[in-house]
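Chapter summary example.
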Amino acid sequence: MPVNRDLPFSQWRLRPEPAEPSYGYFARLVADEGHASLKVYATEIGINGRSIVPEELLHVLQQLPLAPEDHERLRHSTPVLRDGIYHIGNERVRPRQLSFKHRRFCPHCLAERLHHRIQWDIVVATHCPIHGTALIDSVDGKKLGWWWPHFDVSPEGESLIDRRSPKAEVSLPFHEMLRSRLEFGQRESGPTAEFELHDIIEPARFFGRYSNAGQLVHPRNNPIGDIEAGFALLVIPHAERVAWFATWYETVIDKEKRRKGYFASTPATSKADGGRANNLLWEALETAQQEGFAQVGTLGRKRTRRSANRNEMTLLEASRELKVPPKALGKFIRKLGLLPDAKWNGDALSIDPATFQTLRATIDNLITLPQTTSITGIPGHEFRPVANAGFVQEITGLPINRVGGPKYLASEVVEIVERFRALTDDVATNEMKTLLGYARAAGLSTGHVLVSCLRRKLRPAGIDIARTGLRSLYFRDDTFERNRL
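The structure predicted for these 485 residues follows.
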């Protein structure tokens, strides 16, 4: 069924609220229509009801005759995916830093204004900065999905609001910063103001694992961490950071381990901890960390990357830093041709800082097959034939932080999607079929259709630029017969 772009709803008496994303407002309108399922309603009007695509819902809502300021408020609070990054107003976050799979909420906020807030969807957010209480992520032990359009009660009839006056649990500078940026469009004052939100979240999340309930701990024993503690490290002066890290090493790492050097004493990071390349905040923390270690540990021949006497790393050191097995890392370095003159004799391989930074940036740019979906808009198995046909480089045999499977350069995936979208400038019409609908009608796999487009055996008939990635492509029914794939 095509989207009814003129009347997606029969009434729109409700107005978008501050910090309310498209899917929150869409859900309230669905409930106002008297429907019990956002998923069913979305499917009935011809859009993706299985999983939320914020910009698709935004495009539908833009057809409503709302006031210009209401449309602007909705656009400002809706995540829009561009070049692998979600843009929320003037802020940017990585796909893994944002989640709208399940609903989270503050029952006290819902008691005041019955609508969703975009800052609740930031993965590391744990508390409400207004009431100081923890966000609720389940009701009666069950996650609350976005299929449910009501904000006052759960599907089982349990109340989602709390009108009691709460007592603030903690000071929440990080969460206050989130609200200021995402709800009011205002950046905080201080050392983090000039940085993108995703560059703040990544080091704050990782170094927040160094403490738990005010106690210094090893991050391997603290996978969730304290985002507020991590953010505090970003805003205090450098000298205080150095002292904090010196205390951490003395408290958490025993003296014998500290005698073995910085790398033996320091927790390793991985791609799951975020992109460190070109992140000046992360670099500032690492500098303080190394200086703090120097006060209480032994810096021998194998010094840190910032040492004046020894800047190189061995293959084993690099593999520990990157969380990649040494043999797999060695093969990857040779595949990239980063050290053409190297003598490959195991751990004695010397990796200079420039090569290591190139290597780290490349690994930070890798995504798994399931992660390609956030860029392409289609399941990974439907996109993989494009890589198998040689149009995108597929990297195998490179487990990162024990995560195996094929991997792809996110930049290449973005580039190939843009190449597809440039195949036609014609606007899609109701007579055309979506990529999936066309593939089914032609008895072909989606991957086969995509490869045929790249081999110029087939050409999309139209495009809906409001749809994500490859889901924007449309085809005519007679295209299959005319091209005979």
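To summarize the output: The two ends are 26 Å apart (CA to CA).
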